[in-house]
User: Fold this.
Amino acid sequence: MADLVEVLIGTGIRKGEALALCWGDVRLDKRVLYIHATLSAIDNNRLVITTPKTWSSRNWVAVSGRVATALHHRAPDRRPSTMAGLEGDFVFHRPDGRPLHPEYVLNRFHLLCRKAGVSRTTIHDLRHLSATISINAGVPLTVVSKTLRHSTLSTTANVYSHLTAQAAREAVDVIDQTLTQADRPPTPPRPAPGARPRCDHIPQLHNQMTIIRQPTRSRGYSTPTPKIPRTCDHLATTNRHNIRKAVLASCENGLRPATTQVGTAGFEPTTP
Assistant:
């Protein structure tokens, strides 16, 4: 009964359609159920398989995750019925494989309602519960009508008019909010930032942030480059004033400063 109630609420199909459901109509890989027949009781006694209530009822129904789980629970208990007129591999069946009687399902459901402490309801009320949950959740009425497989959209609107009234109020409220926002003066757009002036680009600041890395001298065993001897930064003259201005500095050409200022440059060959 738990799996049957789960399928009835999760899909919104009718009680006779659920009791006549066979495993050949269940496609869990595509998550759909195909409704082809319904189970009826003639004079509340003899069971027969007939066509669905309306022409639009012969259609497919989507399967949710909860419904798929309930069907997986029923999958291991497969017992085909061999009774004349009731042949088939029914999803909900008796121990001998025959489909459940609608009156038995209703009486069992009433017993479970009393044990659970809920109000007395019928099996068909589960179909209304499925539609009520969908409409209150904001599902469009056309989609709800397609799920319930009503013949026309007006049938769904008439049956659930007490629920569509609230949806109609919400629709006009949305229209009112949209028009109210349109009446408000539009906010002026913010001006886009222009390009920076040329005076804002200071080359000196840019040069100060630029780091020039000079190449370091290699410490390998490559051939060293010859050193260029330093030259004096003054004119070689014999003027006494120029001789006093000469700077005593060691050169890298193998010469050392002379002890006596001799000649024009003030250097003499190095002695051993």
Summary: Residues 161-183 form the longest helix (23 residues). Residues 231-239, 245-252, 262-267 have pLDDT under 50 and may be disordered.
